[in-house]
Each structure stands twice: as structure tokens, then as C-alpha cells.
Amino acid sequence: MSRRQPSLAETLGEIRTRVDSRLDELVPRESEKPELLHQAIRYSLTAPGKRVRPALTILAATVFRGSIDLALDPACAVELVHTASLILDDLPSMDDATLRRGRKANHLVFGEDLSILAAFALLNRAFSVVSESAHLSLRTRSDLAAILSRAIGSEGVVAGQTVDLRSTAQTIDFETLEYIHSRKTGALFIASAEMGAAVAGLSGKKLEPIHAYAKNLGLAFQILDDLLDLEGTAEQTGKTVQQDVKKTTFVSFSGASGARSLASELVTVAVDALRPYGRRADPLRELARSLLRDGVVQH
Fold it and tell me: Which of 102, 193, 231, 257 has the fewest beta carbons under 10 Å from its own?
């Protein structure tokens, strides 16, 4: 009798459990000095979330015959970076949000000063996790650090956030809107997928289809997030909603119906991009379709 293949939901549940367990090991305990800083770090890092980005890293690795064990630490590094970005994004000087992943925003509990320090500590830990992954070759660790650095810096997340902040209460064109979110959201999606593929030994042109997949998936993810900001509740999303009323979003640009159609088109393009990989990329295709089908909450 053939063994039943686990469903995507079961696979994602296993990944989330392993990521959460490993994250718990990778950061200092709350009792270690300085206790308040480590409490702030753990407060945001352990908040409930879907762990979409680390799941993308691990799925990409296993699709290309890497293992969860090899991809686990790089996946956790992605989540450390993502959590840092959420802390910073919620600050009064940024989006001034009050709720994140069903909890008060970090700065409302620990103050802006400690929140900023916690975010920097998380970013720093992400790179040390990658560099200390002794089960990976030195070349792979170097490649992973480079991918992550590009995603975060002035051509990635930081670039998207900068233009986003300067575009508040202004009318922007679609090209600028795409620039913002292909970096603010898409850059870390691309890094997540490319890091997983790199763990499995892919490089150069072999990464191009996974890059295209993740770029389009990241934009679709952002559009779904925009829709939830407009239509969802804080209980559903785990964060402050209607934060984007003073910003141009995919929803304000295209309307809710147009935004849904665009998200669907982007998922189709993402799925099609995986064609060179054949059937082995089916888990990534299923992930893309599931995000479109289920929407995005507490990410």
C-alpha cells in the first residue's frame, strides 16, 4: 500500500511547528540580561503567524531535493528579518499601528527605544544564524547572506518603505505603487524562495523561474493584504485595519473587484513561471493558489 502524501495544510503545519521551535532556540531567554530587551524580542517573534516566508524557503528547498533540516535555519533567518520589519513598520514614525498579530504593537508595550533596539537585534541575529549554519558549505552561507542583504537594503525592503512613507496622502501612479510593494513585500518573498533553492544547490539562471514565481506571489500577497485592510476586521487580521486610507493601494487604484482580478492574474503568472521545474514544483503552485483561495491573515 502506497503511503499517503501529506496535504499542504499538514505540511505547512509541520513547517510552522519546526520553525517556531527553532526560533525559540535561536534567541536568548527572557531571563537573560538585558531582560527587557529579550522580552521585547520574544514578544514579537513568538506572536502567532502563518510563517509564510519561512514556509516558502523550506518548500523551495524540498522541491529541489534539499531537506527541511538544511533549510530550517535559513528559513528562521527570514522570519527574524520579517519580524524586525514589522516592529519598525508599526512605529509612530512609520505607520503608527497599534495592533500586530493579535497583540499590542511592540512599541506600545516596551517603548519606542526598546522596540528599535529589538528590531536591530533581530536583524543582527538573522545574519549570524546564516553564518553559523555549519551544516551548509561556506559558499552557500555566503550566497544566503548576500541574498538576504539585497532583500533588506536600499534596493529592497528599505527602498520600498522609504517611497511608501513619502507617498502618504499623495496620488501616485501604478508604476510607483508596484515599485513600493515589489520591494517592501516582494523583496523578502524573493529572498525566501531563492534562499531555499540555494540551499538545494541551485544558482545562476536556474534561479530565474523561482525568482519570477516569488516576485509575482509577493505582489499578489500584498494585494490580498490591501483587501483585508479595507474589508477585514482586527480580529480576522490580527493587526490594525484601515491603516492605508491615506495611501494609494492596489485597492484604491483598481477597486476591490479589480484588485482581486489582479491578484488572481499574478498567481497565475507565478504558477506558470514554475513550468521549467515540472511536477516537482507542485507544492509551490499549491501554496500560491492557497494564499489566493484563503486570503492572508496574521502574516
Answer: 257
Contacts of 78 (CB under 8 A, 6+ apart): 53, 54, 57, 126, 148, 188, 191, 192, 195
Among 11, 118, 99, CA closest to 47: 99
Q: Please, which residues have CB within 8 angstroms of residue 129's CB and are 6 or more apart in sequence?
A: 26, 73, 74, 76, 77, 80
Q: Evaluate if residue 263 carries a pLDDT over 70.
A: yes
CATH architecture of 8-294: Orthogonal Bundle (1.10)
Question: How much is the pTM?
Answer: 0.91
User: What's the CA gap between 27 and 238, in Å, rounded?
Assistant: 24
**Terminal Cα distance for the chain, rounded:** 38
Q: What are the φ and ψ backbone dihedral angles of 278, each rounded to 5 degrees?
A: 70, -155
| Residue 2, pLDDT above cutoff 60 | no
What is the SS3 string spanning the chain? Answer: CCCCCCCHHHHHHHHHHHHHHHHHHHCCCCCCCCHHHHHHHHHHHCCCCCCHHHHHHHHHHHHCCCCHHHHHHHHHHHHHHHHHHHHHHCCCCCCCCCEECCEECHHHHHHHHHHHHHHHHHHHHHHHHHHCCCCCCHHHHHHHHHHHHHHHCCCCHHHHHHHHHHCCCCCCCHHHHHHHHHHHCHHHHHHHHHHHHHHCCCCHHHHHHHHHHHHHHHHHHHHHHHHHHHHCCHHHHCCCCCCCCCCCCHHHHHHHHHHHHHHHHHHHHHHHHCHHHHHHHHHHHHHHHHHHHHCCCCC
Arithmetic mean of pLDDT over the chain: 90
Euclidean distance between CA atoms 55 and 159, whole angstroms: 25
247 vs 186: CA distance, rounded Å: 18
- What is the CB neighbour count within 10 angstroms for residue 14? 14
